[in-house]
């Protein structure tokens, strides 16, 4: 059963809010970054990737975010528009902020790392006044991502978006996406993750992310069922907990759990797995699929993206996703 | 009817959390501060004043806060202890922060102003890790005050305290106490005031403070009934809205409103009116008084404090409060 | 012999540049500040004190500094004007800075300490653009003090003043006045003290202050003669090195050294000794006294100020200074 | 005549101090950066480029700087070592700083721009304690560059290096290299440029850079002869003033001026012209060439580098430089 209901007849299916940045992926792979010499530039950032994935799958998608007033910022906005993403909610920083960068290093398919530039970045300058109530109420769903909660004023902008979403019955997806480097400490992170999660309909995260959130409350044991139930007592209808290689488990408010498997693929790198999963999973749920079927779509999308060089530009279209599901080897977990 | 229930048999009646600072009140009154030459030092800060008022009225009171590692910090802790306030939750800053200062200027009873020192203050360094779940669960009630939400990490410490309070059924009072000088902008303020207010049982503020909170949500008209109802849909049982000279109005969840009047007094200055009101009002509610009766206690306490030189040191004992109610002229609004 | 020459026929004798702040001196002495309850407000800051001392002794004195846009700032400017100090060079901060504070604690005449408020202070916001070449060239001498070098933009403002002084043959006095609390580390301090000292005609400091400056250059032994000679190779004509109770020694470029003694007095506190010494010493030098005679004037002024409650307001007039020299017991060191 | 003397018999010819960063040069040229997609990574930063140029020309070269504790930092140190530059003075930042980045955009040979990442960069964390007196005294010459003066503690580290250089008769070259983006305002810049220039033997800059330095002193007209003379009154023996297409002019203390011309070349981009000029000019002066001959070497090196894709990696060897001087068309200005 699909536990989610979406308001009908709105011009947009999904608005994503938060980080817009640049990935600089080393062209030379299987070596440390000290030994790479050229990089290819892609749009990046978890909510950007999810929005791009969503648009590729045919969803009417918009974005609320802030870009730098330079070539990097314009490249991002141009790319979103080329992918049919509505950028009315994308504003330009005028304080001299830069675009966040992620240099990727692929030592082997299993040993990937990222070198981040996150000082004075435009995406975290998104201000509550940049968030328009009228825009949010034009969408069936809103996607938030944890990184946008890392600093003021972006943090407050997300909370304002959540208020508007609640007021206008916009379904909220929360992809936890916890990246320690922009946060002061775990207590700060947990406070805002918990406050935001209280207001979301669907929460997607790893077991470690949920543990971090519960540690603040002195919860000592990891228990998926407890975790999910806690959020059902607020506004959640669906909680997805990822266990890495051991697969994901989704809980619905009716106390049922749902699992899916993975598709075999030639892994180039692990980046982008979570974002591609989320975009196809949301697409499935918004198109009436059962939870486990939506999870399978997520897995299929992830298996495509991790075999390719980029995260954003690698996102599959509906047709590619269908072909892949028909041809790739699927392994139920 | 008193709409509040308190857990019984706990060692503390009330814990206040937040600002501990120093008031430096000009000894020479009725002139601008340029012309004053001596000052008297008192403990200050809204939650400190309320805690002192509470303890003077015989409530078992504790405090969670942070003081500077100097003579000012030690003066504050000593003063709280002399007033029978439990200071187990008061920690000492070790980063070189100072104690916040408030120099008061009394040009006339109606024209008072404050010159604040709020840079690098110890009280805003209170950290989530300084807030102890076991301590909070020893109290029947928790008082929070808006100023502690103004900056990290104090902001997060308050949210952690609210989580523990909810977990252990500690009744939460929220004295809005909005002081613009420590906040970046109104949107930031409104976001955190709203998030905190959602978790409180009793909210006390001026009409202007509630307006600031509602403006973020594009609410355009001030309407006390709407304001109160909004919070009843979260956790509130009682909302007090102050209208300055026009008196205060309290709403209870049963949709009733309650009013009280004021006691005539010789006004020396207006500082401390709100804190003394809150301390006696809370004392009344915690001791089973009707709402309007508790409001009358609040008014009586305020009329005592505004006739005296300090805020904290002027707080009345039970006996003083009773005497005043018997002797002062009361005027129902 | 007096080694200094001053340009004649300028409207001002001395301009001081730098810190303008407030001293809050405990009225109750011989106890820790935790036990004091009232304070008296005075203008403070080393160059402010020296300027006040200078004006009291009849010198035409001006000031270049920045005050906060509040009652404290106006109090300072008013006080300077009442003391016949020209305040054309005193500008008002418009960024929300506060006036620096120094709470003094007098446990005993030998055990005094200061609690400083130096965050976001107006005096350190003095900007190069606030320093007017035309104003500086109206003075015979300029006094700088180390604290103004502690932070940008005040640091750069002082260097600009030094450029103008050099250009217009204004004699420069440098009172080292090293206060660790506003500096990042000793290396930073030593760099700017050395750069400034290179441009000064008279340098006055304690042995410890000169040691700090030399440590950066890996000078390992304290040697007054070496210290003085080093500065004679730049622009100095006179270097005064203070050895606490062991008295001061002054070196002149002709390789001679000069000493003076102290006047007996009833010490209330030690604050202000250095500033009162400097003001009368400069007054002596600018009025043609021999170096040792100027030093004696400095000692006399110091012995007056340390017997009184304030630093600034205690500065003697010419008449008081003369009387004191006639009546007080002098002890040659 | 070559006005410079160098101490003999030291293990190093030149130590450069300051910025070590990464250039990311767009591989696709003649288009805006919004339309480029790949970048090649090179070591960059003015003193780094000059050091590399110096080493390529056979000078024994060392570096004092700070790199980030990541792949970028290690890439820089490795590259310097591969170019036979001594890196004993290169320390690693441990505070989480990043390597500065310069993304270059080549719209046309005449229209090049740079997008800088200069927040929280490792090179500006160089501390006075990282500068070793014993290391500096092993070199005949020291090269400083203006960017290292932009922020503390790197600013102070440079002044300490200048103190040690003076103490040990190390000849100091100052390449002004003014980049507004790291500075607060022009007054701050001019203060430190002037203080540093006072201590240098050779100063190389554009007319605009010298104007910025003189504006602080209210000098109103640009006059090369005045500019040069001002520095001769401090420690300078040679001042080079660049007038863009109109060529450069060098002044020596004997009041003579020297000019050189340019070599024709196929310009790819203008970046790196100044650094390659400086490295070959210094090489010429340190090898006994006449001033005008050294300037010609500078021009030759510049004409090579601006025809190639990088700045650092394009620096010519002695052999390449000689070949170029024999074959390229030279045009005396």
From TrEMBL, chains A, B, C, D:
Give the matching SUPFAM superfamilies.
Ribokinase-like (SSF53613)
Keyword flag Ubl conjugation: no
In what pathway does it function? Polyol metabolism; myo-inositol degradation into acetyl-CoA; acetyl-CoA from myo-inositol: step 5/7
Q: Does the keyword DNA-binding apply?
A: no
What GO MF annotations does this protein's record show? 5-dehydro-2-deoxygluconokinase activity
Which PROSITE patterns does the record associate with it?
Answer: PFKB_KINASES_2 (PS00584)
**So where does this one cross the membrane?**
none
Catalytic activity entry: 5-dehydro-2-deoxy-D-gluconate + ATP = 6-phospho-5-dehydro-2-deoxy-D-gluconate + ADP + H(+)
Name the keywords, alphabetized.
ATP-binding, Kinase, Nucleotide-binding, Transferase
Per the database record, which ranges form the Carbohydrate kinase PfkB domain?
14-317
Q: Which Gene3D superfamilies match?
A: 3.40.1190.20, putative 5-dehydro-2- deoxygluconokinase
Q: Which HAMAP family match?
A: IolC (MF_01668)
Biological function:
Catalyzes the phosphorylation of 5-dehydro-2-deoxy-D-gluconate (2-deoxy-5-keto-D-gluconate or DKG) to 6-phospho-5-dehydro-2-deoxy-D-gluconate (DKGP).
Provide the family line.
Answer: Belongs to the carbohydrate kinase PfkB family.
Q: What is this protein called?
A: 5-dehydro-2-deoxygluconokinase
Q: What is this organism's lineage?
A: Bacteria, Bacillati, Bacillota, Bacilli, Bacillales
């Amino acid at each position: 059963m699909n536990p989610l209901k979406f308001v009908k007849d709105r011009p947009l299916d999904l608005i994503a809010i938060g980080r817009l940045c640049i990935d600089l992926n080393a062209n030379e792979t299987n070596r440390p970054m000290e030994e790479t010499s050229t990089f290819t530039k892609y749009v990046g950032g978890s909510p950007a990737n999810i929005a791009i994935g969503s648009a590729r799958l045919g969803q009417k998608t918009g974005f609320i975010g802030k870009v730098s007033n330079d070539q990097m910022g314009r490249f991002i906005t141009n790319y979103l528009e080329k992918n049919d993403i509505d950028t009315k909610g994308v504003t330009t920083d005028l304080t001299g902020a830069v675009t966040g960068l992620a240099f990727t290093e692929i030592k082997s398919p299993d040993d990937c790392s990222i070198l981040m530039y996150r000082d004075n970045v435009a995406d975290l300058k998104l201000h509550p006044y940049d968030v328009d109530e009228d825009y949010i109420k034009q969408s069936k769903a809103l996607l938030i991502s944890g990184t946008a909660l890392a600093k003021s004023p972006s943090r407050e902008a997300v909370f304002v978006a959540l208020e508007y979403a609640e007021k206008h019955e916009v379904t909220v997806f929360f992809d936890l996406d916890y990246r320690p480097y922009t946060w002061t400490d775990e207590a700060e992170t947990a406070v805002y993750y918990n406050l935001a999660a209280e207001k979301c309909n669907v929460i997607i995260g790893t077991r470690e992310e949920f543990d971090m959130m519960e540690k603040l409350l002195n919860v000592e044991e990891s228990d998926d069922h407890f975790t999910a139930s806690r959020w059902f007592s607020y506004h959640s209808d669906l909680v997805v907990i990822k266990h890495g290689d051991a697969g994901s488990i989704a809980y619905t408010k009716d106390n049922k759990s749902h699992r899916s498997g993975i598709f075999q693929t030639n892994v180039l790198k692990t980046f982008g797995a979570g974002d591609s999963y989320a975009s196809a999973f949301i697409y499935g749920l918004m198109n009436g699929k059962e939870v486990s079927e939506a999870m399978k779509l997520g897995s299929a999308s992830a298996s495509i993206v991790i075999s390719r060089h980029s995260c954003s530009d690698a996102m599959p279209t509906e047709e590619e996703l269908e072909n892949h599901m028909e041809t790739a080897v699927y392994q139920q977990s």
